[in-house]
# Entry
Amino acid sequence: MRSRVLGGILLVMATILVAPGTASAACGAAPTLITSVEEAHTVFVGRTVEVTNRGRTAEMEVLQIWKGRDLPQHVTVLGGSESAAEFDSNDRIFENGRTYLVIPHNRTSPFTDDRCTATRLYNALTGKAIPANLKAAVGADQARVPVATPANSGAVDGSQMGPWIFGMGLLLLGLLLVWGYTRLTRSDGARDSVRRQERIANEKAAVAAAASAEEERPTPITHAESPFRRSVAARIPIVGGLAGRFRRSGLDSARKMSRQDRKAAK
# Structure
């Protein structure tokens, strides 16, 4: 009987521990308010103007700044996960319209907070004065007021810088791709132009070489103009004239003899 009861208890405890969407973590010993203010990077007083996410997300109007950098007039404080499906026993639940002394984990909006911090309801708001028991921890007698800027225009922490860095990286990558493509196309065009000029120069050189070879080629000598066609005697004017006469007389004699032969044959 005892073993069955013990088994049932263990089963219930295991079901609670592994139930989806829930978690639990111990905060440990809570430090005093003075110690928390001394060790905190940011401390401010804010009044909730809107509460969402089952009370875990609060839009606050900043009333006083005790420690840390200047803040805008409106900030966001996250008391737990932004997912409505996730819940932790240490999530801080804010009440709308209430004033809080906020001592968050980080330095800039959206601030992260939970039940493990010294954040608490604050009802001692008196102008800019800081309570006497906390002046030493704050390091000042008077609180500062928020800067007159639109909501969410304060300093940006690392989580908010992520999308900006990613977008700038994509823009830089796009510019590099455009620059590389432009250089590549220009290089291809320049190479084509150089090749075209080289081809034209080679063609001109080939035409010039062919013309030069044509000019240097010796003019062919015809049979009639051959020096061997004319005798040495023909080159001498007087002898050439006499030779021409003998040639003509020889031809005349041959013609006469041919006529006489034809008559005799008849």
Summary: Residues 28-155 form a domain with the OB fold (Dihydrolipoamide Acetyltransferase, E2P) fold (CATH 2.40.50.120). The radius of gyration is 57 Å. The chain has six helices and eight strands.
